[in-house]
């Protein structure tokens, strides 16, 4: 490791992610930490690097030979949205991970220095503690919410746990001629990407590179899979999920236009609850959604209670605040135009744009 940043009794360095022993030490720190997430793991930021080309960097704070703090980052480059350090890239969580009693100030200072040395005028931390009064940092606690609930004891209890109106939609999906498949093979990957690409195109946003999904699946092995709903042999809804500490995390999912009529998305998430319980999970983590967005209300309809998430953004002195939110009013015209593009054209251009969203 390099050691350019030093605080009292603590050394902050850039981890050598090419060293398996260094990565193993970080993995153990994350696994033992009560706030550790899959997005803190070296394998996540490395998968993002392989899948999008955005370099993985991990800042590690050590006291002696013991890790006491971690900040995983991806260096995001976009000719449209600019450059930033994201913790973690393409993740809904990340941010500072600190041992008990450890201040994160030295890691934040190191991140600021790193950002300026690499011409990144923005740092985004998606979770973790940040001092609200630290110069240059803005703390947001109302922009996004997370949704987590316990899984029921059996299939029927899981169905009755869903609120009445949403349960009726699930029952329609159960009554339809739909087939459920799970796996991580090439057929599963192709089906998932085709559905996901069509889904985000319908929403007016560019699709991520397929190699990002491939890299995450390869990195997480048995801790990730794809569940796909098919109608007449054609995939109509599909979701790529992560599994972490007894929780299933449906991460990249979507459905075709036909999925709405078939209630395929409703069937998909119910089947994922059952699948996850059979895998030994006891919680369903529905991920983050922008507050009061369509996805936010969809998850509330399933009986999930929104919990505000803390995000922190640093902007270099004299620089404009970055806006890469594809749903913002600023990008409304671009979204409308993107929806009108032929799907083949959107799928060709989308990954080049989306790799810079971070």
From TrEMBL:
Stored InterPro entries: Acyl_CoA_acyltransferase, BioF2-like_GNAT_dom, PEP-CTERM_FemAB-rel, PG_Glycine_Bridge_Synth
Pfam families linked to this entry: Acetyltransf_6 (PF13480)
Gene3D superfamilies: 3.40.630.30
BioF2-like acetyltransferase domain sequence ranges: 167-300
Source organism superkingdom: Bacteria
UniProt-listed SUPFAM superfamilies: Acyl-CoA N-acyltransferases (Nat)
Name of the protein: FemAB family XrtA/PEP-CTERM system-associated protein
Organism, as annotated: Novosphingobium kalidii
């Amino acid at each position: 490791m390099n050691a350019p940043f030093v605080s009292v009794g603590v050394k902050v360095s850039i981890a050598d992610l090419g060293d398996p022993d260094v990565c193993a030490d970080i993995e153990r720190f994350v696994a033992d930490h009560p706030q550790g997430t899959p997005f803190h793991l070296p394998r996540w930021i490395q998968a993002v690097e392989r899948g999008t080309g955005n370099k993985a960097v991990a800042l590690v704070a050590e006291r002696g030979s013991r890790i006491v703090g971690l900040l995983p980052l991806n260096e995001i480059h976009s000719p449209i949205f600019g450059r930033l350090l994201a913790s973690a890239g393409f993740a809904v969580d990340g941010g500072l991970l600190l041992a008990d009693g450890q201040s994160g100030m030295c890691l934040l200072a190191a991140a600021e220095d790193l950002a300026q040395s690499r011409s990144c005028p923005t740092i985004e931390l998606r979770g973790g503690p940040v001092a609200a009064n630290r110069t240059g940092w803005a703390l947001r606690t109302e922009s996004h919410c997370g949704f987590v609930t316990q899984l029921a004891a059996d299939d029927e209890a899981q169905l009755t746990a869903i609120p009445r109106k949403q349960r009726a939609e699930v029952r329609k999906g159960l009554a339809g001629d739909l087939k459920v498949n799970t796996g991580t093979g090439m057929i599963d990957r192709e089906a998932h990407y085709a559905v996901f690409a069509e889904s985000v195109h319908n929403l007016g946003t560019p699709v991520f590179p397929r190699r990002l999904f491939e890299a995450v699946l390869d990195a997480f092995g048995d801790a990730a899979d794809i569940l796909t709903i098919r109608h007449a042999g054609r995939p109509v809804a599909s979701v790529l999920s992560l599994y972490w500490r007894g929780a299933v995390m449906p991460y990249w999912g979507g459905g075709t236009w036909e999925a709405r009529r078939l209630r395929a998305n409703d069937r998909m998430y119910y089947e994922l609850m059952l699948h996850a319980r059979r895998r030994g999970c006891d919680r369903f983590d529905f991920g983050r959604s922008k507050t009061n967005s369509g996805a936010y209300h969809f998850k509330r309809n399933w009986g999930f209670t929104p919990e505000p998430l803390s995000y922190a953004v640093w902007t270099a002195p004299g620089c404009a605040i970055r806006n890469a939110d594809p749903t913002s009013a600023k990008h409304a015209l671009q979204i409308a135009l993107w929806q009108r593009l032929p799907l083949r054209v959107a799928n060709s251009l989308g990954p080049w744009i989306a790799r810079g969203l971070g």
